[in-house]
Amino acid sequence: MQGRVFVSFLVTESGEVRNGKIVKGIGGGCDEEVLAAVRLLPRFIPGTQQGRPVSVSFTVPVTFNIQDTKSVAADTLTRIYQLVDQMPRLPSGEGSRPIAQAIQRALVMPAEVANDSLLRKVFVGFIVGPSGVIRDVKVIRGLSANCNAAALAAVKQLPRFVGGKLNGLPASVSMTVPVLFGRLPQKP
């Protein structure tokens, strides 16, 4: 079913929602769902007239649309998202830690920063496609030409990701990762 249901209800002087009724319905269970939603509305701040609380009547449209699942799937494959239900991950584990570790293992530290005690970062952005392949690797915020080149080379060596998903469908996801330069603290 799709269409528009018009529902009316009263907000009392105390803010309670009462007397929900369908003004114009479409059937198919949609009318009942709208009434159930009205019954779940929280207490309102009541309307006032000349500084005193009064009851106010509302009529609200609720629209039901059916989305074509083929167009939703095509849209999910062509758009690039910042955040999805299941973010891309490396096969070695969830979260950003395995990605950072893989980058640091692949990083060839330029001589100009190899002995620096100050840790600095190059931020690299890329897109993880639905199949887990990375593309469009670029420096978002850099340090020097050598550091930027080393960061790009390390990110390009990342293994194939497990692709991201949005609403259960494969999706392209834009990611930004920091690449650390300088002498990393040793674990005891």
Task: Kindly describe this structure.
This protein is of the alpha+beta class. Helices cover 22% and strands 36% of the residues. It has helices at 30-39, 69-78, 97-106, 145-156, and strands at 3-11, 17-24, 47-49, 52-54, 56-64, 80-81, 120-128, 134-141, 164-166, 169-181. The termini are far apart.
- Give a quick account of the main beta sheet: strands, pairing sense, barrel closure: 5 strands, mixed
Number of strands: 10
Mean pLDDT: 87
Number of helices: 4
Sheet-strand content, in percent, reads 35-45%
Shape: elongated
Which parts are unreliable, with pLDDT below 50 for 5 consecutive residues or more? none
Briefly note the structural class of the backbone. alpha+beta
Cα-to-Cα separation, first versus last residue: 63 Å
Quick overview of this protein structure:
22% of the residues lie in helices and 36% in strands.
Write the layout of secondary structure elements.
Layout lengths: L2 E9 L5 E8 L5 H10 L7 E3 L2 E3 L1 E9 L4 H10 L1 E2 L15 H10 L13 E9 L5 E8 L3 H12 L7 E3 L2 E13 L7
Task: Give the tags.
188 residues, alpha+beta, 3-stranded antiparallel beta sheet, 10 strands, 22% helix
